[in-house]
Design a protein that fits this description.
Number of strands: 16
Structural class: alpha+beta
Strand content: 25-35%
CATH class of the largest domain: Alpha Beta
Largest sheet: 5 strands, antiparallel
Order of helices and strands: HHEEEEEEHHHEHEHEEEHHEEEEE
Radius of gyration: 21 Å
Number of helices: 9
Strand order of the largest sheet: 4-5-2-14-15
Mean pLDDT: 88
Helix content: 25-40%
CATH architecture of the largest domain: Roll
Low-confidence stretches: 1-36, 38-50
Number of domains: 2
């Protein structure tokens, strides 16, 4: 109970401090210059919460899903290779169970031992007509909330690993400078994470024109001042800013499976057709509390897309419940694939992956476009058991 009260106090006090700071620094914030969205949030009066919109995911009930991915290769040229993500996370909010698969190629489950990433690898000789591979994985999930987390004690090596820089997540230069300004006035790690979360919500925005889930190139985002993107951009920015000031944080890449129990259409998956339902979330580690769930990208998504009008305030009655709950929690209508960055695919001739959230394929001509699969057709579906 004490932990829950402290979280609520920090949320309230930091929101007040952040609003005052935004109003004072509108004209001179340099790299932290307010976007139109941030300015609108800063000057908007508080809006009373609506009794009609609730978003309160609480753990307790496990849900079981079977997730099926099928790939059909439409264009073959020499040897064709396919890699499919498999649920690889086991925690107090997800249990990754068994998988079964079929194919007319040579298939086997592979594991990247460094990052604990499981995948199904399929290889098709040039002689195979109409290559296909299909995998069904069973997984259990549940909601998350900060008051219910049992502290996970991580060793020093693990925490150091999740503060490292990656190809898309540098932790120096403009990333560190931005984070340092964002956390000004914050003392504890929890306060710093709250300040970064609020800075992301105030300054980044959902950009529907971005392909897929985005690229997650946070240095370019900050250098150009274009903080519009999707989940792999916005939550990567959150993770990178946390890491740059020494707070362990990580992206969690996965897939929405079913509709939200709280009626939010933008936080839902259509289980019959999950193509395009990929979604990245995030976690930050707080000593004594373990890994806390975070999803500022979904706050931005609700603000931009949940209603016909782009909502510009996190205090709007549609947004506020989501804004509050996604600092420390998330809904369990989603499966986590992995937490990998800079992943080398076995037998691949292509570059390392910044993240592994989509089916990947390649042939002698190079890697297929997972965002526009003209030569690489895939279908993803789920059913709750």
């Amino acid at each position: 109970m004490r932990r829950q009260v402290s979280l609520l106090y920090i949320r309230s006090s930091l929101m007040t401090t952040a609003r005052r700071s935004l109003l004072k620094g509108v004209a001179s914030m340099g790299a932290l210059s307010l976007s139109p969205l941030a300015f609108a949030q800063a000057i908007s009066p508080a809006i009373a919460p609506s009794p009609d919109r609730v978003f309160t995911p609480l753990p307790g009930k496990w849900r079981t899903f079977e997730v099926t991915t099928r790939v059909d290769v439409l264009k073959t040229d020499g040897v064709t290779r396919v890699w499919l993500p498999v649920p690889s996370v086991n925690s107090d909010w997800q249990k990754s169970e068994n998988s079964s698969f079929s194919s007319n190629g040579v298939t086997r489950l592979r594991t990247d031992s460094l990052q604990s990433v499981q995948m199904l690898y399929a290889e098709f000789p040039a002689s195979v007509d109409k290559p296909y591979v299909e995998i069904t994985s069973r997984v259990q999930t549940q909601n998350r909330a900060p008051s219910a987390n049992s502290p996970v004690i991580e060793d020093a090596a693990t925490l150091k690993y999740f503060t490292r820089a990656t190809a898309l997540l540098p932790t120096d230069g403009i990333v560190k400078t931005t984070a340092t300004k964002a956390i000004a006035g914050a003392n504890t790690d929890l306060e710093k994470v709250r300040a970064i979360y609020d800075w992301i919500v105030a300054n980044a925005w959902r950009e529907p024109k971005v392909r897929g889930c985005g690229e997650g190139d946070i240095k370019t985002m900050l250098e150009t001042g274009n903080l519009g993107g999707k989940c792999a951009d916005i939550n990567a920015l959150f993770v990178g800013l946390c890491r740059s000031v020494g707070i362990p944080a990580r992206d969690v890449y996965g897939l929405r499976l079913v509709p939200s129990a709280f009626g939010y259409k933008e936080l839902s998956g259509n289980s019959a057709n999950l193509k395009g339902a990929q979604h990245c979330r995030a976690e930050a580690y707080i000593k004594g509390q373990g890994w806390l769930a975070m999803d500022p990208a979904d706050v931005a998504k609700v603000m931009r897309l949940e209603t016909p009008e782009w909502i510009k305030s996190n205090q709007h009655p549609v947004v506020k419940p989501v804004y509050q709950a996604l600092f420390g929690g998330w809904e369990g209508n989603w499966v986590a694939w992995n937490m990998a960055h800079d992943l080398t695919l076995p037998q691949s001739k292509g570059d390392r992956l910044g993240f592994f959230m989509y089916p990947i394929g390649e042939n002698i001509e190079g890697r297929f476009d997972s965002y526009a699969p003209d030569d690489f057709k895939y279908q993803i579906s789920a059913r709750e058991i």
